[in-house]
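User: Need the bound-state model for magnesium ion:
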Amino acid sequence: MDEARFVEFLKERFPFSHGIGIGDDASVVKIGDDYQLITKDLLIENVHFSLDYYTLEEVALKSIAVNLSDIAAMGGKSQYFYLGLGFPKLLGEEANIDFFNALEKGCRQWQVELAGGDFSSAAHLYISITMIGRAKKPIYRHNAQAGDLIGITGVTGESAIGLMLLKKGIHAGPLMEKHKTVVPEIIKGPILANYVNAMIDVSDGLLIDLKRVLTASGKGAKIFYENIPVTKEMQETCSLHQLDEHEPVLAGGEDYVLLFTIAPEKEKELRKEHIDYYIIGEITPQPGELIILDKGKLIQPRTNGYDHFRS
Ligand SMILES: [Mg+2]
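Assistant: Bound-state model below.
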């Protein structure tokens, strides 16, 4: 079973009567005039990261950042979180203090608060954060409209190339930093919420996350590859290591940029906000259709991205 089908199975098995449950970046429950958003992410040592190339500070900050990204993808603002922590005794007490120092740094940096949690010793480092946020108007994946423009808020692929180099034992360099240091779009998310029809954060790869929007919305898409930003650093790293740039750009994971769909007239209004984004394609009416053109030439990526159930 792939992840999409597993999510469908869970949605069916666990109906949610309080609002919108399983299947988006966060659950949504109306409270007063606002909507409460709740999301949860897991980071497990040797599955999601290795302490061979991550410091405890980097892991702690990333564990908050990935959750902030999910709340931002719903157009919301994160407020506070609960921490489930399994911490190996082997790492020692000082490491434990380092971890919480870093967590506190993250709280200050992103203005979120730790509200509670649970703690245990464990064989491997295990971090599970449940983040609570709020939105005036949540943005879902399922509302993309035919004719919408598709936008992304930043570069994709750098993180995947960074990870590949880290795994090869190359530990220093800008792309490795991009992989380890997640910069969640906490400013852009709530701004975009005033304009867009659908939104998701790109955590598993541009195409796989776009497909999630298309499936949820019952639509298709046409992507213009040449409109996707590719940095000079990426081009140089790709040619140095003889990599095809298309794959990390389209299918590399952990970029944590926002992908959104927006009506063309709203996009004109959005320009006045002066935030950086790139229009990379458009939504088509045909469900499941995905056409990728590079300067008019059809391209067929080898993979769509990271599926947690297939790898
Ligand atoms: Mg997400």
